[in-house]
Design goal:
Length: 132
């Protein structure tokens, strides 16, 4: 499996197939990412998740039934005074976004900026794809 390098059009199609309230949250998240990390690129990872990259993979989003999951690859290394991060993985943590108001939380923007700074120092290599 290979990542899709230019994810913008693929992500547009992915979001078009989703429900309106969550699609709008995901679109808002895309705008927030572009404002918070101006050099980030939208790609699609091998697991078909919209991904944001800046000095390597940074975070991803997926749309579920009741929320948008916004995952940070280096989540366990991020300061989280707003206690937004959830999860139990070795390094991955996520934030569940249930409304557009969640995008306005200053703690979310701080998480994004912290992840970008960390990725600049120690870029994530991403998860390995198992070979068949």
């Amino acid at each position: 499996m290979k990542a899709i390098a230019e994810g913008g059009p693929w992500i547009d199609d992915y979001l078009a197939r989703k429900g309106t309230p969550l699609r709008e949250i995901a679109q808002g998240l895309r705008r927030l990412m572009k404002r918070s990390v101006p050099d980030c690129k939208e790609t699609v990872n091998p697991w078909k998740l919209p991904t944001f990259e800046s000095h390597g993979p940074l975070c991803h989003l997926s749309i579920g039934k009741n929320h948008v999951t916004f995952g940070f690859l280096c989540g366990t290394s991020l300061p989280d005074p707003g206690r937004l991060l959830e999860g139990t993985g070795k390094s991955l943590r996520h934030v569940k976004l249930r409304s557009a108001a969640d995008l306005q939380k200053p703690a979310l923007k701080k998480l994004i900026q912290s992840a970008a700074r960390l990725n600049k120092k120690e870029p994530m290599q991403g998860m390995k794809v198992k070979k068949k």
